[in-house]
Amino acid sequence: MKNRFLVIVYIFLFFFLAVSAITRYAEKGLPVILMSLAMGALYLLPAILERLLHIIIPPLLKYMILTFLFLCLQIGGILSFYDRFDGWDSFIHLVSGFLTPALALSVISIFNRNSLFLKTLSPGFILVFMVFFASGVSLLWEYIEFFTDTLLGTNHLNDTLLDNGQVDIGLIDTMTDLLLSQSASFISAFCLYRAIKKDRWLSISRILITRENHQAN
Q1: Domain enclosing residue 129, as ranges
Q2: Which of 25, 108, 170, 205 is 20 to 30 A from residue 101's alpha carbon, by CA?
């Protein structure tokens, strides 16, 4: 890692992870240690993928990914913010919506083996692709929450007590999460669309994953 600030970010993340594991061990026991080890592996995943897939993840996008992992898994899972605050899960879905359109652009770049391929596509088509890609990721997330609730006994799809006394089994929670993530993704996708329309490729390159032999210009 040549970026000194990125090294500092990693030092903070692993230090905070160790402190979190130690302080939460008395309450959660061995599972928090295993979760912390998995969390550490996920923090290293961007660097590992760069080496294995011969890709370049720009520093800004790494910060975004690491921040999302920190909020989603370390703060939400290890520090139990999902249990402490009712709106934390919805907040995480909102954050994910801002991130997924940038990943959609990277998918186009990587699968076509050339970041310059983006310049040959219609900005309108890229906008539609980003929106639907983000929608697919949001839906996949809800599938994962459903299966973990079913198989592992978690409660990601929160039940809601209705005014008529009946209990909604996860539908309101699911739809709220989808609306938040897709609204955020549309805003993010539209901003990227405007940048593409105005040929601001230097700005886009800061969040675009490329192959080592094809840098974004």
Answers
A1: 86-208
A2: 170
